[in-house]
Automatic annotation (TrEMBL):
N-terminal signal peptide: none
Region (Disordered) residue spans: 262-335
Protein name: Pyridine nucleotide-disulphide oxidoreductase
SUPFAM superfamilies (UniProt xref): FAD/NAD(P)-binding domain
Pfam family, one: Pyr_redox_3
Gene Ontology MF annotations: flavin adenine dinucleotide binding; monooxygenase activity
Domain of life: Bacteria
Keyword Magnesium: no
The entry's keywords: Oxidoreductase
Biased composition (Basic and acidic residues): 274-288
Keyword Oxidoreductase: yes
Length: 379
């Protein structure tokens, strides 16, 4: 006989656990189905050194503090996963792990849904999809099949030792891309960072974290923007105690800043070619709203300028040795849903491809990009 309940919640990450707390507080019978473990993606699909971008006082559930992180500190990924599990246990969330939902369909002739799982069927009046907006990494055709350069998504990146030798191009300069680029640079890698438009608020202002300011200004309660509205992500970092993302500081640390990657093409009759034929990389110029250099698009105060961090205009020729270059066909990571064209990223995403061309020529300072790492669209 089929099992019945009022609500089935699919996914036991942050949203699924939070939904269970609300349903339980109102006495609503429910089940939470998780195909792996609670907070699985924090455990197995994030890099080793990842920390949350919000302070612990902010990134928590009601009624439970982080036991091993100061309120103004930033939790590491393993601490976040342990916290989710501890909270689920505290509220007695009816979570079933190791249960994969294979299909959901409406009942015919009566309200509710039929949920098929790896352990049988369940009937429920309501279904909550708490699987997250970026659960399926999608890599655009940055590197063609058979190219010398390797390619990975940030969900598959763990640490610098994992990567083959050589320079790394990180495509995407949001919170994830910047954290990874900084880590790679500290490990001694040559790092090139492809930068697009971002809002860059100060990490702290007048002694308060920017998350606090978003709250008192009512920005957490903003209405959902209309379909098709432009969306620019916030770039801020919780790494190393939390800091403002300042691309001048990244450049001063030796990270080479490039504009948005739009294409990488070999010229000539036989695919990728070097030597006399040369190659062409299509990059956009870093614009003021991308934070290179300047101020946050909506922020009234310029980012602090660390001593020695002045950098020349980011218009440069990048030399490359022959037969080592990938073809970069749109350097933006996509949201979770698969797409047919990179120009279609869903109602809350955009591709802003404005192009300036830079010749790639051979020379003694050639850059050999051995790996292209594509950042997740948002956290």
């Amino acid at each position: 006989m089929s099992e019945e309940t009022e609500v089935v919640v699919v996914g036991a990450g942050q949203a699924g656990v939070a939904m269970s707390e609300h349903l339980g507080a109102h006495g609503v019978p429910h089940l939470v189905l998780e195909r792996h473990r609670v907070a699985e993606r924090w455990r197995s699909e994030r890099w080793d050194s990842l920390v949350a971008n919000g302070p612990a006082w902010h990134d928590r559930f009601p009624g439970l503090e982080f036991s091993d992180v100061a309120p103004d500190g930033f939790a590491a990924k393993d601490q976040v996963a342990q916290y989710f599990s501890a909270y689920a246990e505290k509220i007695g969330a009816p979570i079933r792990t190791g249960v994969e939902v294979t299909s959901v369909r409406r009942h015919v002739g009566r309200p509710g849904f039929r949920i098929e799982t790896s352990r049988g069927g369940i009937d429920a009046r309501f279904v909550v999809a708490a699987t997250g907006p970026f659960q399926r990494p999608v890599i655009p055709p940055v590197v063609p099949d058979g190219a010398v350069a390797a390619q990975t998504h940030s969900s598959g990146y763990r640490n610098p030792a994992q990567l083959p030798p050589g320079a790394v191009l990180v495509v995407g300069a949001g919170s994830s891309g910047v954290q990874i680029a900084e880590e790679l640079r500290r490990s001694g890698r040559r790092v090139l960072l492809s930068v697009g438009p971002h809002d860059r608020p100060p990490r702290r202002y007048r002694g308060r974290d920017f998350c606090w300011w978003l709250g008192v200004l009512g920005l957490w309660d903003a209405e959902t923007p209309p379909r098709g509205a432009a969306h620019v992500t916030i770039a801020v970092s919780g790494a190393r105690g939390g800091h403002t993302v300042d691309f001048r500081a990244l450049a001063a640390d030796g990270i080479e800043l490039l504009g948005m990657t739009t294409a990488y093409e070999g010229r000539g009759g036989g695919g990728e070619r070097g030597g006399a034929d040369g190659e062409r990389r299509l990059l956009s110029r870093p614009r003021p709203e991308s934070g290179v250099p300047g101020r946050s698009r909506r922020g009234p105060h310029p980012a602090p300028r660390p001593p020695g961090a002045d950098v020349p205009a980011l218009e440069r020729r990048v030399a490359r040795q022959p037969r080592t270059s990938p073809r970069i066909e749109h350097g933006r990571a996509c949201p979770s849903a698969p797409v047919r064209r990179l120009s279609v990223l869903g109602p809350q995403r955009r591709v802003d491809l404005v192009g300036c061309q830079e010749e790639l020529t051979d020379g003694p300072e050639g850059v050999i990009v051995e790996l292209v790492l594509v950042e997740v669209g948002e956290e």
